[in-house]
Specification:
It contains eight helices and five strands; from the N terminus they run βααβααβααβαβα. A five-stranded parallel sheet has the order 3-2-1-4-5, sandwiched between helices. Helix 5 packs across helix 6.
Length: 164
C-alpha cells in the first residue's frame, strides 16, 4: 500500500480552503477508503494548530472558523489514526537528535528536518508539501516529491495515486 507523508503545509489544507486543498481532500478520502496511508509527524498537529491560529490573528478567518477548523483537525486525525488510515510518528528524543545533521546538510529549519526523519521512519514513499526548499531536500533523501501548490505536480500526484 502506498504511504504518503504530508508535512504541515500540506496537512493543513484539509482544514482550510487554499491552493492545493482539493488534492489533499482526495488524499484524505483515499485514506479513509483504505487506498493509501497518510503518514505525519506528531509535530504536524502543533504546527497545523499554529497555522490556523495565525490565520485568525491575521483576520483571514473569524473565531468561529478557527474553532471549527481546530475541532475538525482533531476529529479527523483521531478517527483516521484509530482506523490505521493515518500513522503518526511520535516526537521522541532520538528522532529529534536524528534530525540535527539534516539541518546543516540542507540548511533546513528544525521543523523541516524533523519532517524528513519522520517520513523516513514512517516508511513513506511519497513526500507532499507546499515548500519547494523542503521538497528539494526530501528528493535528495530519496523520496518521490510533489508540491501540492504546483498545478502540474498536483496533477501528477493525483495520477500517481490514481485519484483523478
Amino acid at each position: 500500500m502506498v504511504s504518503v507523508y504530508l508535512d504541515s503545509s500540506a496537512y493543513i489544507k484539509q482544514f482550510s480552503q487554499e491552493k492545493g486543498s482539493s488534492s489533499i481532500r482526495k488524499i484524505f478520502e483515499a485514506s479513509e477508503t483504505g487506498r493509501l496511508v497518510i503518514i505525519i509527524s506528531q509535530w504536524t498537529i502543533g504546527e497545523s494548530l499554529a497555522a490556523i491560529d495565525r490565520k485568525f490573528r491575521r483576520k483571514e478567518i473569524d473565531k468561529k472558523e478557527k474553532e471549527f477548523s481546530m475541532i475538525k483537525l482533531f476529529e479527523i486525525t483521531v478517527r483516521l489514526s484509530q482506523t490505521g488510515s493515518l500513522r503518526m510518528v511520535p516526537v521522541r528524543e532520538e528522532i529529534v537528535r536524528a534530525s540535527w545533521p539534516l539541518i546543516s546538510m540542507y540548511s533546513l529549519s528544525a521543523d523541516d528536518a524533523l519532517h524528513l526523519v519522520s517520513a523516513a521512519l514512517g516508511l513513506a514513499s511519497i513526500f507532499v508539501a507546499a515548500d519547494e526548499y523542503l521538497l528539494k531536500a526530501a528528493g535528495k533523501e530519496g523520496f518521490e516529491t510533489y508540491n501540492v501548490e504546483n498545478k502540474d505536480e498536483e496533477e501528477r500526484l493525483l495520477e500517481k495515486l490514481q485519484l483523478t
